[in-house]
Write a structure and sequence with these properties.
Helices cover 40% and strands 11% of the residues. The protein is an alpha/beta fold.
Length: 568
């Protein structure tokens, strides 16, 4: 039985790795170095995890596929065919349980002197209990542990609640806003802070409707069920609506736990970065003279020498001279955007005020803790309503959809650099070196240059539309009006359709549910994103022939996306 510490990677991968190495069971504990007394005062005196707190959570193999394990790749409707649980490839096969650091302490003490001292292997293994005289050793110890986890498989209904504001002009196309409402425990931050924000946003949009406002495009507001079990509600909805989504989904904006700290953070498709920068520049940061954008950038710069790379967005020498912008991270997995982005190819954004995870997935994630230590006046909640609402209205009501292919083209260049670094770190195999394989990446560079040229062409068309016609196409001449509508429709279809052109119906080899060629959850990264996942995994496996096949396929995918942007 393996005792492992929370952190660094998704808990499901810890159990999977233990299983692959012959363990019979896993105990996962929360170390105070990560979110307990090492960070500050523990609850009820502060926001950090007390000694008796356990972190619950799914240990599904999310990197294989999310959603109902028994309906892989298709919707789990009432009469859908279901596979046997033993055949589900995203379920681990050994038992596991979470522990508090109070209950983990005697197990760690029993390991003392057994195996190797963790400090001699990797100093980061040594946790906060060292302050209490606990040493961290690899073991095994002579201690016997009885581990029992009775798992009961049930097929039960889950209920997504969907609200709809029908668009006034283009009702087929939809902007989707989502938050899950199920929680492991008390759930004040995760997810109920996001649920409160979603309900307030619905109320605010309702007030606008009373004044006669209607968005051009449809807005869907989704309250997802069963997210904590493995993104079940949203995944099954996407699988059921996949054809409609691929034809009509403009964008998906996700807010999970809206407020668990005071630092704004976001993950997004590159097409949504500029929109996010724009709306955060319009929303005041509570209790300051700054906007949310200002605070986000300042905090990012303060961390730039440690764990955050501030995104200078530099693709050319001219771009390099621009001031830095806050980092927008890649979308991996771990919340309800997963099926939209990685399976359906709908541009997605997920955002939160985060930074104090000391009650995550525990009974201490209570309203009292949230209002005492994180957001006493609920001002951060209000700020999130404003950010979410502005982004939704800009996407749903703008004559020209506010998605940015140019940012995508620039970011693909960064992805290629990240891939090169990843490949260079792999050992030689089968007589082929990673250095030789790197030469093939030139095909990706060539494709990226075409994507950049095509993205500039879209920008040229936007400028032409504004200068010659105006975005609203308000003119008396029928011919000019028809030409304006044709050009505007073309621009809109290209910018929201771009993400779809980065998906492959065949999926990633070995993980075919994930369709996105450029960015998907990493095979051993859990929630983390991997750029060019098929190439990265071929390199990890030392299969350089397959690597070359995937280089060609990825380059063709980018070329096809580039040509799509030129279709006027």
């Amino acid at each position: 039985i393996v005792l492992v510490r929370y952190g660094r990677v998704f808990r499901g991968l810890k159990v999977q790795a233990a299983e692959l190495h012959g363990a019979r069971g896993v105990l996962i504990y929360s170390d105070p170095a990560d979110d307990g007394f090492s960070k500050g005062k523990t609850y009820p005196d502060g926001p950090w995890r007390p000694e008796s707190s356990i972190q619950r959570g799914s240990v599904m193999r999310l990197q294989v596929y999310p959603g109902d394990p028994l309906t892989p790749g298709y919707a789990s409707t009432e009469n859908a065919p279901r596979i046997d649980p033993k055949d589900a490839k995203n379920i681990n096969h050994i038992p596991s349980l979470p522990l508090s650091y109070r209950d983990a302490e005697p197990l760690l003490r029993a390991l003392q002197g057994c195996g190797a001292n963790a400090s001699t292997i990797d100093g980061s293994w040594v946790g906060g209990l060292a302050a209490k005289g606990v040493e961290y050793w690899t073991g095994p110890s002579g201690l016997h542990v009885n581990l029992l986890n009775r798992v009961e498989y049930k097929t039960v209904p889950v209920q997504n609640v969907i609200g709809r504001i029908k668009g006034s002009e283009d009702s087929e196309h939809a902007v989707i806003l989502g938050n899950h409402r199920d929680a492991w425990c008390a759930g004040a931050s995760d997810p109920s802070s996001g649920s409160a924000v979603l309900l307030e946003l619905a109320r605010a949009l309702g007030e606008l409707m009373k004044l006669g406002w209607r968005p051009r495009r449809t807005i869907l507001l989704a309250s997802w069920d069963a997210e904590e079990y493995g993104l079940v509600g949203s995944t099954e909805w996407v699988e059921e609506k996949i054809d409609w989504l691929r034809a009509n989904g403009v964008a998906y904006i996700n807010v999970d736990g809206a407020v668990s700290g005071t630092a704004f953070a976001a993950q997004a498709s590159p097409t949504l970065k500029q929109l996010l920068y724009s709306v955060t520049q319009q929303v005041p940061y509570p209790g300051s003279n700054e906007t949310v954008y200002d605070t986000w950038l300042r905090q990012s710069l303060q961390r730039a020498n440690t764990d955050v790379d501030v995104d200078a967005d530099a693709d050319t020498d001219t771009d390099a001279k621009k001031p830095p912008v806050p980092p927008v991270n890649l979308l991996g997995s771990g919340s309800d955007y997963t099926a939209f982005m990685a399976h359906a190819g709908v541009s997605s954004l997920s955002m939160a005020f985060s930074g104090s995870p000391g009650a995550y997935h525990s009974n201490y994630d209570s309203p009292k803790r949230l209002t005492s230590f994180i957001d006493p006046g609920m001002q951060l909640h209000q700020a999130m309503v404003r950010i979410w609402g502005l982004a939704a209205i800009k996407l749903a009501d703008g004559a020209v959809i506010d998605l940015d292919p140019l940012s995508y083209a620039k970011d693909v260049r960064k992805y290629i650099k990240m891939l090169k670094k990843h490949v260079s770190a792999q050992p030689s195999s089968n007589g082929t070196t990673s250095t030789a394989a790197l030469g093939k990446i030139r095909h990706l560079h060539a494709a990226q240059r075409q994507l950049l040229i095509s993205s500039h062409m879209v920008e040229r068309d936007r400028k032409h539309l504004r200068a010659i016609y105006g975005e609203d196409c308000q003119m008396k001449s029928r011919r000019r009006h028809a030409n304006c509508i044709k050009l505007r429709t073309s621009i809109n279809e290209r910018v929201f359709g771009l993400e779809r052109h980065f998906t492959d119906p065949e999926g990633i080899p070995g993980r075919t549910w994930y369709k996105h060629v450029l960015v998907s959850p990493g095979r051993w990264l859990g929630y983390g994103a991997q750029v060019f996942p098929a190439l990265a995994e071929a390199a990890e496996d030392g299969d350089w022939k397959l690597f070359q096949v995937h280089v060609k396929h990825a380059a063709e995918t980018i070329h096809e996306a580039a040509w799509f942007l030129r279709e006027v």
